[in-house]
Amino acid sequence: MSTPDVAPANWYERHVFVVDLVIAIVAFVVLGVTSSAMIVASDAVVFGVLLPLCMCAALVFRRTRTVLFVSLVAAIAIIEMLIYPYGLMTAADLIVLVAVHAAARYGTRWFAYGALAVAIVGAWWATVQWVLFPSYATGYRNEVAQALFVGTALTLVVVGSYVLGRTQLAKVRAIGAQLAGLAERNDLLRHEHEQQLRLATEEERGRIAAETHDILAHSLAIIVAQADGAAMVVAKNPGRAQQAIEQIAETSREALAEVRQKVAALRRGEDPTSDLAPAKSLTDLPALIENVRRAGLTVTLSTHGELDRVAAGPALSAYRIVQEALTNALKHGGPQVNANVEVAREARGLRITVEDDGRGVVHSDGSGSGLAGMRARVEQYGGVLAAGPRVGGGFQVHAMMPLPDAAP
Predict the structure, then answer these.
(1) In the prediction, which pLDDT does 263 show?
(2) pLDDT top residue among 404 and 104
(3) pLDDT of res. 3
(4) Is residue 321 within 8 Å of 374, Cβ to Cβ?
(5) Which residue has better confidence, 269 or 323?
(6) Secondary structure string (H, E, C) spanning the chain
(7) Among the four given CATH numbers 3.20.20.70, 3.40.47.40, 3.30.565.10, 3.40.50.1820, the one describing domain 282-408
(8) What are the sequence ranges of the domains in the chain?
(9) Which of 221-230, 269-278, 375-384 is least confident?
(10) What is the pLDDT of residues 253-276, one digit of tens each?
């Protein structure tokens, strides 16, 4: 199983070769020269001086070329014991423990096992050379217990070096796995954030589209009705045609101002349906009714309850529902249509009813974009909407929206 890479945390880990080179130089000066002086004092040959120095110099490859380093140390130690079978021991032999640690820390599992096995064999081999051979050479035969003690102690030191290296490796792997988990979690959070951002963007686009549709559809329906009326009476009644043209201009200015309000709210980073953005409310219903009346639709309005206390979001949705329903009546109802609008704040919530006696809309099943927009506005606040033909002719829209402060 591969171990996740851990980024170097300090200067020591970022400059591996330089650090190991400095360590090799220090060991070369301290251990190598000391070992060479010991060997020269014991009248050893030139190889006895070169081998400890070479072992110290191999430290430069401790982390960058671990296999090469361990192999060089093992080969030098074996050569040293083969050339001097009667107990050549130097300070540089401590590097064997460093090699075992490096194999366990930086090498593969089986390479570390192999290095450990070779080091243990070498420890007992050295015990035989350092303890038993000199004893037999001098005629003493009672050094077996001492050899067992020395061999066991060296074995424990070798195993300790191995365990230390594997423990450090396990710690590094654990940190790497933790960092990999954090990175994966970060990726998931980033993906979730991007998905939420996309959903919010789509939702915002939907709200903008709904607002623009309601504003423009209503205004254009009135403009078309007024323009048709002006064209019919311009020759017989120029004054009435003039009033229709003025109504067209007023409706156009109102629609343009409302669209500009929404765009300005969006540029400020506000929700066009929020309390911070200027929006229509239920108190604007009389002006809406009057505007539709001037377009040729006979409308009666009845309200019940404290509509001015309805929150801005539900109030805007209710206003747009009434606006869209009257727009549909004006567009599809035919001539001389009568409509009735009732808005009531009840214990269950806000009730909106719009009925007309015209021909009704073409999409009586609720699949039209205007009806779908009304349904979406109601469902946004947990309400329900029913729209369809009336018994006896005409069309009706009924919506019920629960309010946060409504009594149960």
Answers:
(1) 64
(2) 104
(3) 46
(4) yes
(5) 323
(6) CCCCCCCCCCHHHHCHHHHHHHHHHHHHHHHHHHHHHHHHHCCCCCHHHHHHHHHHHHHHHCCCCHHHHHHHHHHHHHHHHHHCCCCCCCHHHHHHHHHHHHHHHHCCHHHHHHHHHHHHHHHHHHHHHHHHHHHHHHCCCCCHHHHHHHHHHHHHHHHHHHHHHHHHHHHHHHHHHHHHHHHHHHHHHHHHHHHHHHHHHHHHHHHHHHHHHHHHHHHHHHHHHHHHHHHHHCCCCHHHHHHHHHHHHHHHHHHHHHHHHHHHHHHCCCCCCCCCCCCCCHHHHHHHHHHHHHCCCEEEEEEECCHHHCCHHHHHHHHHHHHHHHHHHHHHCCCCCEEEEEEEECCCCEEEEEEECCCCCCCCCCCCHHHHHHHHHHHHCCCEEEEEECCCCCEEEEEEECCCCCCC
(7) 3.30.565.10
(8) 11-186, 282-408
(9) 269-278
(10) 776 776 676 666 566 555 554 443
Q: What is the dihedral of CA 147, 150, 152, 155, to 10 degrees?
A: -120
| pLDDT tens digits, 304-314 | 988 888 888 88
Alpha-carbon distance of 65 to 103, in angstroms, equals 10
Q: What is the pTM of this model?
A: 0.46
**What is the rounded CA–CA span in Å between residue 227 and residue 251?**
12
